[in-house]
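Entry type: protein chain
Record version: 2
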Amino acid sequence: MIWIVPLLAVLVGIGLAVQAISARGPEVTLQFFSATGLEENKTRVKFKDVEVGTVKSIALNPDRKSVRVVVQMVKDAEGLLVADSRFWVVRPRVAAGGVSGLATVLSGAYIAIDPGKSDTPQLAFTGLEVPPLVTSETPGRQYVLSADELGSLDIGTPVYFRRIPVGKVTGYGMREDGSGVDIRIFVDAPYDDFVTQASQFWHASGVDVSLNSDGVKIDMQSLLSLALGGIAFSSPTDEEGQLGRQAEEDASFVLHEDRAAATRQPESRVEKYLLTFNESVRGLAVGAPVDFRGLVAGEVSRIGLDVSKDSGDFAMQVEVSLYPDRFARQTRNYSGGQVPEKVSRKMLERMVAKGFRAQLRTGNVLTGQLYIALDFFPNAKAGRVDWSKRRPELPVQPGVLDSLQDQLLTLLESLRHTLQHVDQLVVKLDRDVVPDLAPTLRDARKTLDGAQRVLDTADKLMLSDAPLQLEMRDTLREVGKAAQAVRNLAELLENQPEALLTGRKRSEE
């Protein structure tokens, strides 16, 4: 009987050991860059704030580039260990998207798990260095945006729909060929219902400032997008106001530079033409509009330099992309949806014959931006379209400023020739006319002096008040005034012979 108690103790110990072993889950190996905040037999593994494991050991890998963390999981956590499950360390973090992990300041760091949806079990994982913004249980959908460059976007950048934040950027990466970047976004439910196959995405970062005939317009999504950047999207509706078909998970879209580029109506047909300008194209950029009396008929696609092989002259060659179907949509007497190529060519030939030309014009006086205007010029030189070239060339009209400059130069040149002729005439007068005129003027002065003496003598003799004498006195006085005027004229011509052409010079004070 004395051995019954020890035997019962052994049996109870064995039972407890069996129970502990049976309740024990699998061991999981995690790879982290560092073991900051982790402690053996103390750091917990949690899922929804429920402990599902404990860190058993921490060791440095042989390559010394990472650490190996062995975690003892509980039995009930076996279903969480699948191929696409994710592990990360929860600790206080401050990032551009906000502050996270503040609760671990007092309780200490722990390892969080986000179970995947795969059916393949797995016991070795590579831990995430940054916590995921979206877990597998968050309602919503992920999409992929393709762009030429990342811009000001970052992980956590908000996604807006009608200026309401409905999602965020979850990741990005460069394509294998380096041709651009792919950006992954997550749109929360129920806003993911508004993402259709025809949705348009664009950069909503910073402030969009535009200057047009209506004044200055400033547009931005929010102060947060001003600091962190942002992505906005819109979903067009049909004629009945209904949205299109909803986009599937991981659907791909193009991320445009701005809203204008995203909402630009796609063109079914594009025709390219060449324009050769013998003037400066400073202020003209690729993408500048090609305007026909207020209707945007195309845009500039390339700007280059053309050198003549024969004369060696330089000219600026501009390639434009025209959209002939836009004319069809704006023409009342054309019922077709697309203009045939033959019809568009004949129409263009008739327009060129009537003076249809391309001209550089200033679109913004403040910035000096140029655009290409298509219009009719009745006085334009004859021209035609050469369809035999790879890129047909349209005739051009000199710009308004250049024409005004040429007219001013012509006027200045004519004025210069006139002044030269005047100078030659003055020199000729000084050389030929003045020497011959001087003796005559001296003789006239002597004659006038003698006449003045006679008049003075007659004036002294006629001192009575008889009517005849008074009339004669007045007559002699008038003759004296005339003589004085002739004398003044003679003195003026003697001192300033050029006064015959230029007039009398004012005396300097």
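Comment: Residues 140-262 form one domain.
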